[in-house]
Amino acid sequence: MMITESNLQAESAIARDVVPAGDYYLKTVKAGQTFRILDLEGNQAADTLFYNANDIAERYSAMDTIREQGNVYLTAGTQLISNFGHTMLTIVADTCGRHDTLGGACASESNTVRYDLEKRCMHACRDSWMLAIAENETLGLNKRDITHNINFFMNVPVTAEGGLTFEDGISAAGKYVELLAAMDVIVLISNCPQLNNPCNGYNPTPVEVLVWDA
Ligand SMILES: [Zn+2]
Questions:
Q1: Beta strand pairing status for 175-181 and 87-94?
Q2: pLDDT digits over 113-169, tens only?
Q3: Which protein residues have a CB closer than 5 Å to ligand 1 (ion)?
Q4: How many Å lie between the centroid of ligand 1 and the Cα of residue 116?
Q5: How much distance in Å is there from the Cα of 33 to the middle of ligand 1?
Q6: Is the pTM higher than 0.70?
């Protein structure tokens, strides 16, 4: 895994937001700005969607990103490609090593399939995204816009047989991923509340989002 550190200092950030586990982050990052997702306590999962702020029909596409970079994992150097084939963002620093874009987000439905019927009522990332778009109607997003996502910091290795497994996290307190926006992008993060997945050690914790001007 490749580790690439950033030269940006937290003191020079123009915005800093701590996002508790189970909460969402929804902001527009302008072209040329850089933002960092900081894993404050370690082994957290930040389930993230990106939209072109000027045309929400354009959004992050896992399949286009995987095909264009020829790799299922995301790390420094990865360009995040939209469904229109454009580069939306580039990962410019990464001290975790790799990030998942295959595992998808937790939902009340998947919680019952993966864990237990009684887990249905537990909070899930899909619910956080739905709350975010309901509380920000002016963006024009609806549930059809909730598509495949990136799970920053989440460890979902592909086995030799081609299977997917959720494993113990590879992140730690203070690790981060940093992205440079190539267009104005709406960043929608669900800071995962999941209590049943070993990726976060069964202990969801806050992340911090920092933004720097060009
Ligand atoms: Zn989740």
A1: antiparallel
A2: 666 666 666 688 999 999 999 999 999 999 999 999 999 998 888 888 988 887 777
A3: 106, 125, 192, 194
A4: 16
A5: 27
A6: yes
